[in-house]
């Protein structure tokens, strides 16, 4: 049985610039086809716009408020929102609130730096 506690999992920075703690993935458990991580984004910060050629993602917001962009669609998001991110679509999340945004990231197949393609930020 593989059980990981958030407080015992080391943090690392993903290619898009978010700090995550990978709770379950092939690197630390018997899970092979997906991964689950907790991400944190400080107030006023954004992930780098990016896409994943292979991976579909689900973000589930636990705390904080932000703005989610997927392709040309932008929406405000907050606690309890689950966001579907299909493979191949450029996406970015921005923390628009005063507190650190905390959200879960589910990836299938599992998150890999090599499946993250950064794109220029033309939203400014």
Describe the structure.
- With 124 residues, the protein is mainly β.
- It has a single domain (13-110), classed as Jelly Rolls, CATH 2.60.120.
- It has no helices and eleven strands.
- It has strands at 11-13, 19-24, 35-41, 50-51, 56-63, 66-70, 73-77, 82-85, 91-95, 101-108, 117-118.
- The chain has a six-stranded antiparallel β-sheet with strand order 1-2-3-10-5-8, with no helix packed on it. It has a three-stranded antiparallel β-sheet with strand order 7-6-9, with no helix packed on it.
- A hairpin with a 2-residue loop joins β6 and β7 (73-77).
- It is globular and about 40 Å long.
- It starts with 10 loop residues before the first strand and ends in a 6-residue tail after the last strand.
- The mean pLDDT is 95.
Give me some keywords for this one.
single chain; 124 residues; mainly beta; Jelly Rolls
Query: Helix share of residues?
Result: under 10%
Sheet with the most strands?
6 strands, antiparallel
Q: Round the mean pLDDT to the nearest integer and report it.
A: 95
User: In CATH terms, what is the architecture?
Assistant: Sandwich
Layout of strands and helices, then pairs:
Elements: E1 11-13, E2 19-24, E3 35-41, E4 50-51, E5 56-63, E6 66-70, E7 73-77, E8 82-85, E9 91-95, E10 101-108, E11 117-118
Antiparallel strand pairs: 1-2, 2-3, 3-10, 4-11, 5-8, 5-10, 6-7, 6-9
Task: Give a brief outline of the structure.
The protein has 124 residues and is mainly β.
């Amino acid at each position: 049985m593989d059980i990981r506690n958030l407080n015992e999992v080391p943090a690392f920075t993903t290619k898009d610039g978010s700090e995550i703690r990978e709770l379950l993935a092939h690197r630390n458990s018997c899970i092979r086809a997906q991964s689950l991580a907790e991400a944190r984004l400080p107030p006023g910060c954004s992930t780098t716009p990016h896409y994943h050629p292979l991976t579909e993602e689900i973000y589930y917001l636990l705390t904080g408020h932000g703005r989610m962009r997927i392709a040309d669609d932008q929406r405000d998001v907050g606690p309890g929102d689950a966001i579907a991110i299909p493979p191949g679509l450029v996406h970015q999340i921005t923390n628009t609130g005063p507190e650190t945004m905390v959200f879960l990231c589910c990836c299938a197949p599992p998150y890999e730096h090599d499946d993250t393609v950064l794109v220029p930020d033309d939203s400014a």
